[in-house]
Write a structure and sequence with these properties.
Elements (H helix, E strand, L loop, with lengths): L5 H9 L7 E5 L6 E8 L3 E8 L3 E5 L1 H5 L5 H10 L2 E5 L11 H4 L2 E7 L3 H10 L7 H4 L2 E2 L3 H9 L5 H19 L1
Antiparallel strand pairs: 1-2, 2-3, 4-6, 4-7, 5-6
Length: 176
């Protein structure tokens, strides 16, 4: 597999969107947008509305369980909920597929609708993504994390430092 450069890793960790002063994100499972709380020292606090596409990762085995493996029914229901499946690259540069990757999360599943619609699609197909028996077949991030990954935005570093300092201070006071 080709190596990932330090710059790519740094961009992912630090965000690729230069927007500053994001102090909070408000999201809701029933919406396909978030509200960003921005605390700009020059213009003050404001709330911005941003759209995103809720997503999750799933293993190949789910396709055999979903709607009893009926591909036509899966496609029909996916259209109804505006859901897209993207098969992820799991092979190395020489074409081999490591067993760990072959047994892993091979699909990115996205919708232009809400995360609730994504859940409903799976649930109607007989796979409740919240139930213990199916949970190991999915990777589900918080809606805030999904938005941050998708947009490349990041929380304000200054705000994170202030928040962590306050939490540490409160913890120390409670122990004294």
């Amino acid at each position: 597999m080709s190596k990932v450069s330090f710059d790519v890793i740094e961009e992912f960790l630090e965000g690729r969107d230069p927007q500053k002063y994001i102090v909070s994100i408000e999201s809701n499972r029933d919406d396909n947008f978030v509200h960003l709380i921005v605390n700009d020292p020059e213009t003050g606090k404001r709330i911005e509305k941003h759209k995103y596409k809720p997503f999750l990762w799933m293993k190949h085995d789910v396709t055999k369980m979903l709607y009893n493996g009926n591909r036509r029914k899966i496609s029909e229901e996916a259209r109804k909920y505006d859901i897209r499946f993207k098969k992820l690259r799991t092979n190395s540069d020489d074409g081999t597929i490591p067993q760990r990757m072959d047994n892993g999360y091979k699909y990115l599943v996205q919708t232009r609708n809400s995360f609730s619609d994504l859940e409903r699609f799976f649930s109607r197909g007989g796979v409740n993504i919240r139930k213990e028996e199916f949970r190991t077949n999915f990777v589900i991030l918080s809606l805030d994390e999904q938005f941050l990954i998708q947009t490349g935005k990041d929380y304000s570093k200054e705000w994170m430092i202030i928040t962590m300092s306050i939490k540490c201070n409160l913890t120390l006071r409670q122990k004294v």
